[in-house]
User: Fold this.
Amino acid sequence: MYHIPHLAAGACNVVPASAAFDPSEALGPAPPPPGAGGAREGRASPLPQVLHELLPRWAGACTFLAPTMLHRLCEADAASRASGEALEHLRTVVVGGGPLHVDLLRRAMGRFGEDRIVQVYGMGECPMTIAHLGRQWHRGADEALLRSVGWPFSHEVEVMVAGEQGERLPHGSIGEVCVRGSPVMSGYLGDEEATRRTFFPGGWLRTGDSGRLDPTRGCLTLEDRIKDMIIRGGSNIYPREVEEVLLTHEAVSEVAVVGVPHLEWGEEVAAALVPPPGTRREAREALEAELDELCLASLARFKRPRAYHWLDELPKNSTGKVLKRELRELLAEKAAGEEPAAAAA
Assistant:
């Protein structure tokens, strides 16, 4: 199985418990390297509080975080000196399970150091990971590399970007990310039709993610979930591209961009925004004008959001992933003149 590049021989790693990972799974099903050790403790408390309690008790710790969890940790660190001191004991932060925007990654690197972040990309059908950007690649990395998920995790995994019929696309072209190799599942138990839909000929597993391979370096950059892509008047818009721009504004703490129904264009771009704590409601209208100018300066005009919706929080699942289907429904209702009480600011 895979080696784990952030687990060094002789290291002592603490893996905070989660509903999704057991320490043996998080560190690989094979025995760890000689001299490696680990420990596990569980707490039913918010993540920043858990780490604040546990980290001072250990010489070093490794934790796996979804991007939302990383965001909360950075926010708590900024608000609490005690929390910041506790985080000094955190040796490695493995991030995966959703899009990691460059703005958040830079904040985390500034706080934890460039050599303590490991990005991973994978899915249940190809455990544990498809690609990774190891700690060594974060040092002095340019924007394009930080936005990527790195390279295939091992020689056992092959990655390609495919067209609609499963044909291999040249590097630099955007298509569906596909993977094959010994870690890839053979199929869904008892569901041959689902298995057929999920594989291209040649044993290529379709991830459902759109992405591209860098023409020079060969690293993989994800664009978005294919189902989340917005088609406005026949033009493809990848929400992550818009989100990356909006997150550069200091008044935006979190953002998710989705397509909402539009009579003329088919879909229109809408942005759901979470402001930093303490932002006054009256200031939001002026902020929207600034955000619009920011998008016009960085994006093609048709990609900019035509509507901004300020929410107290984004709808998420238990692991912190934004539920874009629920968000689309919420914003479609708001666009139609309905104001649901849930999640509205």
Observations:
- The chain has a mean pLDDT of 82.
- The longest strand covers residues 204-213.
